[in-house]
Amino acid sequence: MDKTYQPEQIESRWYERWEADNRFAPSGEGEPFSIMIPPPNVTGSLHMGHAFQDTIMDTLTRWRRMQGRNSLWQVGTDHAGIATQMLVERKVAAEEGKSRHDLGREAFIDKVWEWKHESGGHITRQLRRMGASVDWSRERFTMDDGFYQAVQEVFVRLYEEDLVYRGKRLVNWDPTLHTAISDLEVENRDQQGQFWHFRYPLADGVTTEAGEDHLVVATTRPETLLGDSAVAVNPEDPRYASLVGKFVELPLVGRRIPVVADEHADMDKGSGCVKITPAHDFNDYEVGKRCGLPLINVFSKDASVLERAEAFDLQGRPLADVDPSLPAAYAGLGRFEARARIVADMEAAGLLAQVETVSNTLPYGDRSGDVIEPLLTDQWFVAVEELAKPAIAAVENGDIEFVPRNYENMYFAWMRDLQDWCISRQLWWGHRIPAWYDAEGNVYVARTAEEARAKHGLADDLALTQDEDVLDTWFSSGLWTFGTLGWPEPTEALKTFHPSSVLVTGFDIIFFWVARMIMLTLKFTGEVPFKQVYVHGLVRDGQGHKMSKSKGNVLDPIDLIDGIDLDSLVEKRTGNMMQPQKAKAIAKATRGEFPEGIEPHGTDALRYTFLSQATTGRDIKFDMGRLDGYRNFCNKLWNASRYVLMNAEGQDCGASLDGQSGEVELSLADRWIVSRLQQTEAQVTRALEDYRFDHASQALYDFVWNEYCDWYLELSKPVLWDDAASEAAKRGTRRTLVRVLEAVLRLAHPMMPYITEEIWQRVAPLAGVAGESVMTQPWPVADEGRIDETATHDIEWLKGVIVAVRNIRAEMNIAPGKPLEVLLTKGSEADRERLAANRLFLSRLAKLERIYWLEAPDQAPLSATQLVGDMEVLVPMAGLIDKDAELARLAKEIDKQDKLIGGIEKKLGNESFVAKAPEAVVQKERDKLSDFAATRRVLVEQRDKIASL
RNA sequence: AGGACCAUAGCUCAGUUGGUUAGAGCGCCACGUUGACAUCGUGGAGGUCGGCGGUUCAAAUCCGCCUGGUCCUACCA
User: Fold this and answer.
1) What is the pLDDT of residue A644?
2) CA→C1' distance for A477 and B71 (Å)
3) Which is it for strands A305-312 and A247-249: parallel, antiparallel or unpaired?
4) Where are the alpha helices (DSSP H) in A478-602?
5) Fewer CB atoms near the end CB (10 Å): N or C, chain A?
6) Residues facing residue A359 across a β-bridge
């Protein structure tokens, strides 16, 4: 083995090997375990969130696989309608100078497929770098043929049950992308805005109670005035009661619109009158419904003003009795330009009463960044009410369990207040809606045009045109858990792996995806999609800020693995920016944070970092320090393995594959480390069962570094290297070294797959273990029978003596390597026996010249003293020790004991404590008190002795 | 406005059903390299557990209020 751990040399090699050997496919045996990967966007590249999530899923999958479960990690990518279409549009524009409309629908779709074939493999290659043990042979895409079938099937069946319907409704319209988007894709941002108060003249000479000939309404959107169809007042409002049923004359337009009574009008706000524009505001739409008002649309798909308004009734039928004329001056103006002109014209007409500056929130499209316009359009919807009921019940009755639990509340809150889901998108890339229209506009929904004709008895020569729209991406990804397994066919895979065991996902897509999967899956399979949902937080930068290109704080997981030099990192963060003016500051911050660039750390270290930070229900601040630390941990494991191999290879380890071995004798240290291994195995397993990856990684780290390396390897040296040790003992220690390491590698494998495989290949044969890969070895199961309390206590004693000596050395400024004479005294018979049994270990680890039992404590030479239990560890001071330093040290120690004693005496002095606390607790305090008191006595004795010199 | 979550060492975080001398890693200080490892070893310093109040024999842990932070939902004519 190389002297230093170099991950880049082992990682790609092992992944290719595993994949070639088909190690990721389900074994076909054992209880099924399955995870469906949240399909990443096919256009995307792997970000920290993916890397984190993939690490968790891979750890779970590898662990369950080793436990003998028939494990499937289903992989695939999402076609991601808007994102992909935008990306290819930009590419075509840049390369050919054409828009998608120049190309036409078919040619453009071809371009997208072409692009997908060219570049769609980027993210899956990155997934391989993370070590993801997904079954590539089952890779799926949300627009592959199978998904096409599934999507058609679901849509048609929902339609047949009236759970999908089409209608003219007010939707969130993106004027840049020219498509509807769902509520979830709208991002509300706080803004400073203006609030204009307008006078609307009352018609027919009517006046208010106060004698005014007009009403005052206020708006942040003056341009919607053109589409007003009423002014509402509160039914309880005495100021305007007489006006209900009367009319106002809409300024600039001249249309007569009624004054209506509706509780939407708030008497305490402004004048108490509110303009109602049902076609351009969601609240007003509701008022329109309640009051039977016409819907007057005044905007085109670009959100510019129409020449003539379009009026509809609530069913979306054109209304002939509304005068559609609009002032010619505004025709074709964009909404913001129209706003300015309308305000100016109102002011010129003396109808602008007041302008206020207010803070409000505006809806933005999360893809385009444009302000969303509520617009009346024909769209397809899923009626969610019926679907939501069983979906809520499934979580309530525990069929689906959220981890951590509190996300269930978030889920319930959202599910109980669900709006119908607008599923049509005016895009080209996606699943085209399986609906056909004849010349009269009759709609026929079927899986194919042929089926539509057959079903509805249509003539073969009747011209049918398919709906131009595609389905929301989340509609198809909502079928992910069963669609990937072959549904609607009743496949073996579906029977075996559905419902999936656990969904690993971020809280940010609980609404987008998780909730909809639950609804659709229950509807079509009668099963839940997954039994558990493990919800993790967002990966943020070291300061807790969201990583984003515009902030220039993005870390690329691949850069953490391979390393990146500073200039490349700066270039990556500042190149191709939307706001180039920020580049300088970002470059400076980057150079400050990473003066040397980023070193290579390897996949295993990155994975370990994620796991150690994967604590329940909170975002993680990615900590570069930990990444370094876990890279060092890999290095530690690597070097410990080198030591083991150096001492075991070519030697009789008492367990070689050929079964030939001499007699074996286990030392105290051997029994102890085996015992501790059992406990660690139990701890790690328990932690993984509880999704406490932080605890799992911590337990393993502690065992490997603080026990196996720091103590056990050191304790093995005297046995292996000292002639005094027997051959049987040497054999026993070699066997333990090798077997414990082999088990550790299995235990660590799900978390750090590469390094464990690399080392395991060399160690397994020495441990008498046959097999081609650690991946398919059994998961270590703790054997309670090998937990050895005596050995643990003895080792604790041994460590205590060694640490006591080291402590004295450090405090007394005695060179670490200087051989010392040490006396033990005042202890029990057990202590005396322990000394006899462990003389070799003690001498070696504490670097002693001589250690012996002092029978008569009162004859002790002047010494520095430490206590191990009741026993005193003495390092004679002659010529060694600084008297003042020792006195100072003792004073500090005595002070510490005094504080402890004081605390306990106070407790025990409290009568109600003694009376009410459980006897065991009280006894524990008494025991502690006598321990501390004894320690104090020894320290004081020692102090007096030294002071008297 | 409603709700959720968070606040523990300089930093990033653990802390099971209340009883621990409140822990880890990084960072810091001192010392140390002939035989696994300086991506290291040994020893050490560092915390009134955000604040106030309550329950209890006992609170980092349970309850209430407050402060600060993050996020979600809603509203803003």
Assistant:
1) 95
2) 25
3) unpaired
4) 480-483, 492-497, 515-525, 557-562, 566-574, 583-593
5) C
6) A192
Q: Which nucleotide is nearest to A628 (CA to C1')?
A: B39
- Chain B bases near protein CB atoms (7 A cut-off): 3-6, 11-15, 19, 21, 24-27, 30-33, 35-37, 39-44, 56-58, 70-77
* A529: three-class secondary structure by DSSP: coil
Beta strand A273-276 with A230-233 is: antiparallel
The pLDDT tens digits for A407-452 are 888 888 888 888 888 899 998 999 999 999 988 889 999 999 899 8
Name the CA radius of gyration of chain A, rounded: 38
Compute φ and ψ for A316, nearest 5 degrees: 85, 10
Compute the distance between CA of residue A141 and CA of residue A80 in angstroms, rounded to an integer. 10
With a CB cutoff of 8 Å and minimum separation 6, the contacts of A775 are A18, A23, A62, A65, A66, A133, A749, A753, A757
Q: In this predicted complex, what is the ipTM?
A: 0.94
**Through-space separation of residue A218 CA and nucleotide B24 C1' in angstroms:** 60
State which residue has its Cα closest to the C1' atom of B69.
Answer: A544
Residue A205 has pLDDT above 60, yes or no: yes
Per the CB < 8 A criterion, the answer to whether A755 and A7 are in contact is yes
Question: What is the C-alpha to C-alpha distance for residues A512 and A75, in angstroms, rounded to an integer?
Answer: 19
Distance, first Cα to last Cα, chain A: 57
Residue whose structure tokens are 């109600």: A912
Q: What is d(CA A6, CA A35) in angstroms, rounded to the nearest whole number?
A: 31
Instruction: Give nearest nucleotide to A722 (CA–C1').
Output: B35
In whole angstroms, what separates CA A593 from the centre of its chain? 24
In Å, what is the separation between the CA of A694 and the C1' of B68? 27
Reference A280, options A210, A345, A225; nearest CA is A225
pLDDT tens track for A885-944: 777 778 888 888 888 888 888 888 888 888 888 888 899 889 888 888 888 888 888 888
| Apex A779 CA angle, A735 and A769, nearest 5 | 35
The DSSP string of A613-647 is H--TTS-EE--HHHHHHHHHHHHHHHHHHHHHHHH
Distance from chain centroid for Cα A724:
55
C1' of nucleotide B36: residue with nearest CA: A643
Q: Is A737 helix (H, G, I), strand (E, B) or coil?
A: helix
Q: Nearest residue to B57, CA vs C1'?
A: A913
Pairing of strands A470-471, A500-506: unpaired
CA distance A131 to A604: 9
Of A848, A846, A872, A845, the closest CA to residue A861 belongs to A872
CA distances A873 to A17, A150, A718, A803, A869, Å, are 55, 76, 22, 10, 10
DSSP bridge partners of A305:
A299
Please tell me the distance from the alpha carbon of residue A715 to that of residue A491, in angstroms, as a whole number: 57
